Amino acid sequence: MRQSKNFTLEANILDPVNRRRGYGAVVVRDGMVEKLEITGPEKDNTPYLMPGFMDAHIHIESSMLTPPAFARLAVRHGTVATVSDPHEIANVCGIEGVRYMAKLGKASEFKFFFGAPSCVPATGFETAGATLTVEEIIQLFEEKSTCYLSEMMNYPAVLARDPLVMDKISAAQRYGLPVDGHAPGLRGADAHRYASAGISTDHECTTLEEALDKIEAGMRIIIREGSAAKNYNALHSLIGSHPDMVMLCSDDKHPDDLMRGHINQLVARSLSHGYDLMDVLQIACVNPVRHYNLNVGLLQPGDPADMILVEDLGTFKVMSTWIDGVDVFSNRIVNLPEVDIPVINSFGIDPIESHDLQLHLKSAPAKIIVAVDGAIVTQQEEASMAEGFFESDTSRDILKLVVINRYSKAPPAIALIKGFGLKSGAIASSVAHDSHNIIAVGTNDKDLAACINEVIKARGGLCALGRMQGIPQSLETPTMASFKFNDMAYKSICVPLPVAGLMSDSHDGETIGKLYSAADQVSKTWLGSTLTAPFMTLSFMALLVIPSLKLSDQGLFDGQSFRFTSLQ
Question: Around Cβ 389, how many Cβ atoms within 10 Å?
Fold first, then answer.
């Protein structure tokens, strides 16, 4: 960290720890708050100084940015720290992936607090690139590169008190570290049993009733508002009723969304609902620091000077951000270092042919995954099918969903899905929670194969693709590529993600955000997807620990019975 400056700053001060506000001054010496004084009432037309914001649960990898590039966007919105789960890269690269994130995070001069992933792989029903053992988790605790046990997704094993799962929880407890939860839909006695194993949080609540059940069981609720999963509207009343038990998070946030805002948006939104300012700042700043016992300042004497200056209490437009007394953002300029980004990855397959994606169906009903806009849960239904090889049926919005093991050669897994609304082309991605195999959805086998191959050739990334003759001129950009596959001419737009097939190696988060936004627009405007975030939604269609029907590289999976199921 660069040398902190000694300075005194006068402003309207918000002190959520002591629930005070007024005009005053903060004295900073050697990066620490030496003195905080409130000398009078707030002054009009004067900025507000307050503790910086925290994202209480986020996968940095989902931003498609490495920690240094993420930090350069986040500080613009007043975020000074994140509680980060490196679960995604751990599924690809194992313990070295976690160390990679911790090393880059430290070099970024931003306060990243990484957890030790508890579920790598998340289940035994998919092929991951690595396994993280109890011994390796203990190693991460010993190295002090992690400060909590990341979300315990295998909640059936917790309920059953599976010895391996309990060993991981016990290891965290021996080191005095909190254990994050992940238990969608768990209620009543099951929620209490889950919490009694030592689980301290949950960010998967989609209804107020579920959240209240879990609060009663002793878990803190982290209200999630990400790029795909959006639970704020259902849960925000907790800010008024249980401010001591609530935090805010993104979970998964794509780079175009991060360009627009972060936790500051939820703070402004909460105030617009009429919640008490100090309650809102408690959940956005204070609760994460105290729950995870983090070295993040809360504007108290003796704290690190991690603080922000905002223009007003309506928009929460950030004027300046300090971390450890260093001015890391001011006058629209980011003052964080550009860090060298070495590339690590795991990719072991070659391009495929369209005939690899053939699916023969019987004359019988077939199970259909139903994607839900704004959610990572799915629904399911059945539809009648004719005998023969199935091609996507755009008239019924029944498309092929494909998952391909990216670590070693294996036959693709194929299912049927509704909700994407594609009318032409295909989209594909190497971001497929949790094992990050290649996942794709498309309107015909040729386009699907061509799109998947673009991801394979790049050794990771996102791709939206369609046939050249159908593209609107308004969408053509220099970032689009033209090529032929099986004698068909295509236009594609890809976001290369060479770091573990999850993240860009670029320093410039804005450039990646704009490229992703262009791919997103192509998938909607040209290809016809009706989803708010097609790529983010696609990435969750392989997430087996979230009900109800998902697809792994090994087959169709019922998340409620927690076992494979047949397509017909």
Answer: 11
Give ∠ CA 139-251-544 in degrees, rounded to 5. Answer: 80
Cα-Cα-Cα-Cα torsion 93, 201, 433, 529, nearest 10 degrees, comes to -150
Q: What is the C-alpha R_g of the chain?
A: 24
Tokens of 562: 């927690």
Structure tokens given for 45? 């037309």
* Predicted pLDDT of residue 545: 86
| Contact call for residues 421 and 529 (beta carbons, < 8 A) | yes
404 vs 412: CA distance, rounded Å: 5
Q: Which residues lie closer than 8 Å to 333 by C-beta, 6 or more apart? A: none
pLDDT at 374: 84
Question: 13: closest CA among 4, 3, 21, 2?
Answer: 21
Determine the Cα angle at 200 with ends 196 and 205, to 5°: 100
Q: Which helix (H) or strand (E) holds 172?
A: helix 163-174
Find the DSSP H helices in 217-346.
232-235, 238-241, 255-260, 263-272, 277-281, 287-292
pTM of the model: 0.92
| Residue type, position 28, single letter | V
What's the Cα-to-Cα distance from 350 to each of 405, 448, 452, 457, 557, rounded to whole Å? 11, 15, 10, 8, 26
pLDDT of residue 3: 66
Residue 227 has pLDDT above 90, yes or no: no
Q: Report pLDDT digits (tens) over 200-225.
A: 999 999 999 999 999 999 999 999 99
Q: Assess whether pLDDT exceeds 80 at residue 472.
A: no
Taking 80 as the threshold, does the pLDDT of residue 474 lie above it? no
Q: Beta strand pairing status for 111-114 and 360-361?
A: unpaired
Going by C-beta distance under 8 Å and a sequence separation of 6 or more, which residues neighbour residue 215? 221, 238, 242, 245
Q: Which domains are present in the chain?
A: 7-330 (3.20.20.140), 354-564 (no CATH)
